[in-house]
Specification:
The complex is a heterodimer. By secondary structure, chain A is mainly alpha-helical. Chain A has one domain. Chain A is built from 3 helices and no strands. In chain A, helix 1 runs antiparallel to helix 2 and helix 2 runs antiparallel to helix 3. Chain B contains 11 helices and 2 strands. The model of chain B has no long low-confidence stretch (mean pLDDT 86). Chain B is mainly α. Chain B has a two-stranded antiparallel sheet with strand order 1-2. Classes of the chains: A mainly alpha, B mainly alpha. Chains A and B meet through helix 3 of A and helix 8 of B.
């Protein structure tokens, strides 16, 4: 059981790190603000989610696990809000791509 | 983390520092500075200084970053003009020399520290039970070096007075910041309705766990101030009049409570800021909660800036 949980942690955290890498690559390589935001928020939300899910079996208690999930949800909320705001201001301001 | 990761972190911080200094535009430099603050947070975590890491993330990266971003957006109009009139070569060489000398002096001071460095940590550990709190950082800040924390709170008030004194005569006593016109059904207003209840709970939680775990009033106050600023930015509430008696009372409450409890200590414990035996924890809590309110107001008002709109007659 212990080994299975550890394997789950390794797989989930590694795939989470992969999504962070993909998101960063997208941020650097994509041509304009909207696509860059797309890369950043999608990949980071999924990446952080996988890291949190991977870490859940390793935490000491239920409370710590709940805190981790709360952090993920708060990041989801704030990154969704902020990306909407950035996208809107880039459309209105007509900032160069 | 392994040695290689530490070295990578150090290289990243040095590189980011150089990039921040070399950046031509103020806004770019500030983005670099905020990222630099977040990396420093990781360094403090590595050094097991979680309290300092929290403060660095909240105040060093977040609050200072927001202050600088506000300053840069005000300077944007004249920035190109300022950059056009470059200072003379001699001035620039002199500035570089002074900066390098300051950095070298700092490096020499750090390298000249005796090994192992002198420490009062064992004494703190031996006497921490007397303070009624379990977190050594909080014990040092509130009990062993209470004067420092008191002066810190007062320095912030002085900084706020400095910001306010930039107000034009007509706006004195009025409200800081522009009147926000935000779509009341927009995403910002939505976030400003959804986040503050969570943020207020987290802010008080950070203050409360500061007794035994990393956390405390400065970190908690930053979170509360952010929530208030979010509500103000979304146009759900207007900024307060800086002439308001209630606002000013809230601003000085923390420092006054601190000083009052300090004087109570003179007859009861024989020293200014000494806490009487057995009731250290309630006294510290009174100061912490009063300071939380005052710091929240001070930090938010620092970001809002000088009063700009006169009160309508």
């Amino acid at each position: 059981m212990r080994v299975a949980l550890d394997v789950w942690t390794i797989i989930a955290v590694t795939s989470g790190a992969f999504f962070f890498l993909a998101g960063t690559t997208g941020l650097l390589r994509f041509p304009d603000t909207l696509t860059r935001l797309h890369a950043l928020t999608k990949a980071d939300n999924l990446g952080l989610g996988l890291v949190v899910l991977g870490l859940l079996p390793q935490v000491g208690g239920v409370l710590t696990g709940l805190k981790l999930i709360c952090i993920w949800l708060l990041v989801l909320l704030s990154s969704a809000t902020v990306s909407q705001l950035i996208a809107r201001s880039s459309r209105q301001g007509g900032s160069p791509p | 983390m392994s040695e290689a990761a530490n070295l990578g972190l150090t290289a990243l911080i040095l590189g980011l520092g150089i990039w921040t200094i070399a950046a031509r535009e103020a806004f770019v430099a500030i983005v670099g500075f905020i990222a630099y603050g977040l990396l420093l947070t990781l360094v403090w975590v590595q050094l097991r200084g979680i309290d300092v890491a929290l403060t660095e993330a909240a105040i060093g990266g977040g609050l200072t970053g927001a202050l600088l971003t506000g300053a840069a957006s005000r300077l944007r109009r004249i920035e190109a003009e300022l950059r056009a009139q470059r200072p003379a070569l001699a001035t620039r060489v002199l500035a570089a020399c002074v900066s390098a000398a300051a950095a070298a002096a700092l490096a020499i001071c750090v390298l000249a520290l005796p090994e192992p460095p002198p420490t009062l940590a064992p004494e703190v550990a031996a006497n921490i039970a007397a303070t009624g709190v379990g977190n050594p950082i909080t014990a040092v800040l509130m009990a062993f070096r209470g004067t420092d924390t008191l002066l810190e709170a007062i320095v912030l008030l002085l900084a706020l007075i400095g910001v306010w004194s930039l107000a034009p005569d007509g706006a004195w006593g009025g409200r800081p910041g522009p009147l926000e016109h935000v779509d009341p059904n927009g995403i910002l207003a939505y976030a400003a309705r959804l986040l503050p209840p969570i943020g207020v709970v987290v802010g008080f939680y950070i203050l409360w766990v500061g007794a035994d775990h990393p956390g405390g009033k400065f970190q908690g106050a930053t979170i509360l101030a952010t929530m208030w600023l979010l509500v103000l930015m979304a146009g759900l509430a207007d900024t307060p009049r800086v002439g308001s008696k209630w606002l000013r009372a809230g601003l000085v409450l923390g420092a006054l409570a601190f000083i009052a409890i300090g004087f109570i200590g003179v007859p009861l414990a024989g020293a200014f800021l000494g806490y009487p035996d057995g009731i250290e924890k309630p006294f510290i809590l009174v100061i912490e909660f009063a300071l939380l309110l005052s710091l929240t107001l001070t930090l938010a008002l620092l970001l809002l800036g000088a009063p700009a709109r006169a009160e309508r007659p």
